[in-house]
Amino acid sequence: MLDTVREVHTPEGVALRLPAAGPVPRALAWLIDFGIRMGLLLAASMVLGAFDKAGMGVYLLILFALFWLYPILCEGLFDGQTPGKRALDLRVVSSDGAPVGWLAACVRNLMRTVDMLPFGYACGLVSGLFDPWGRRLGDLVAGTMVVHVPKSRPLSVMAADGVMAPVLPLRPEEQAAIVAFAERAPRLTPERQQELADIAAPATGAQGGEGVHRLAGIAHWLLGKR
Amino acid sequence: MRQEHFIVRHEAEWQAFEQWLDARGARPRRARADRSWRGLADEDVPAAYRRVCQQLGLARRRGYSPQLVARLQELMQRGHALMYRPPLPRWQRAFEFFAADMPRLVRAEAGVMWAALALFAIPLVASFIGVQVKPELIHTLMGAQQVAEMEAMYDPAKATLGRAAESDLMMFGYYIFNNISIGLRTFASGLLAGVGPALALSFNGVFIGGVAGHLQATGHGDPFWRFVAGHSAFELSAIVIAGGAGLRLGLDLIAPGRRRRVDALVEGGRRGARLCLGVFAMLLAAAFIEAFWSSIGWIPAWGKYSVGGALWALVIAWLWFGGRDRHAP
């Protein structure tokens, strides 16, 4: 329940890590979709209001399509993303990490009827809290889950004046932490860089700005630039 | 190997794979038509994907930086999504589903289907006979206003059947939204231990039986039967099937047998959802008939009844024989 990342072992023998999305981003995505649907319905009612009873029929058809077909079509056509999910970087995938298929999209959205019981997606919320990967009943039945789409960032390592060896021998996880620092540092403020570098003072033997420079040097040494 | 060397050595491969994913991954059909592609050849993609997987495994094992691992993981994930995506839907498959899989599913759940039919038909017949014997019983089902409206709807002197002056298109929209939502809700409420579909089925049975009985007894029977003859085949059977699927879901909840309850629910839900697709299509057909055929007043009774009879025969034959020849027992 605490580790919401699902590891799927693929036929290639490598673990695929699927970060499960919790109820809050999913509810927000649903709200965005709800707003879009309401907007479309309002626009339709304004146009169709001019056509008396036939217009009423078309309006009901559109209501039906927005209610039942909108999520199925969006998830089927746009690789598991409705506009709301796209806005929040969420995606529906099959539980083995493959893209969601049409049948699964139909099933999980038809089962919304159950998740909405008795009111306000209560069943879905309870199921999501008990499931280790936050799946609502419709997801369980369809064999799908909602994941965060990873945001890719270009690899850029903080520049260093010179390469230097660490003062102390470092354990593997400490090495990884220093490299990770050098890769994240360009997006941090200088104050935060120094604050973080001070934690590693025993390895660099320096404080403040000098510590940051030395840490970058050590990172380059660890990365193999010697 | 140091991370830097690792990156230098493999960067070109990763970029080639990434470019292929960007250019040709998303739309296979359009990509095949494009002959000018000069990057990674399509037939080399599985091998490139496997190499990325292997390199990701190495990177994790050697403790390379989270950023590099994240990048490889993203490449792998995109490759995985491509290698293992479900096949594109085919029209033939949809046809097969409705012609064979759907009746087979219904027959596979024969027990709950018969139970649903009983829950629906027994109250229907009982209330029909009850209203014939004691006509005042109709007032326990609905108010005087509703009775008067109903009698006006099926007034034998009217040109159209079963409704006031609404247009066909409006009623089509109404039937679709109303009936399909009711059908799906009947199924879904099965999660309340099967109580939902049982209540929905018997209540609908009592109500429909009461209405039919009252109209029959007061001499409005002819327009009423002419109106319902056409669409009843699809509509009533769809409601019974949805109810049966709901009962199945309820049974899976309270009596999962030797399976884990969640497994039973998942399996039941998957079957139920497929049945729902069929129910959806049946109610769509029913709404179409109800809106554009049932209300036509000038067609003589024998025309209406023979079409209705043919549709009933069609539905029963479909459910009884559909998909039997392939996996003959």
Automatic annotation (TrEMBL), chain A:
The keyword Cytoplasm does not apply. It is a multi-pass membrane protein. The chain crosses the membrane at residues 27-51, 58-78. It is found in: Membrane. One of its GO terms (cellular component) is membrane. Coiled coil: none annotated. Keywords: Membrane, Transmembrane, Transmembrane helix. It holds the Pfam family RDD. InterPro entries: RDD (IPR010432). Its main location: membrane. Residues 21-143 form the RDD domain. This is RDD family protein. It comes from Thermomonas carbonis.
From TrEMBL, chain B:
The chain crosses the membrane at residues 112-133, 189-213, 233-254, 275-296, 302-321. The keyword Membrane applies. The keyword Transmembrane applies. It comes from the Bacteria. Keywords: Membrane, Transmembrane, Transmembrane helix. InterPro entries: SpoIIM-like. It holds the Pfam family SpoIIM. This is Stage II sporulation protein M. It comes from Thermomonas carbonis.
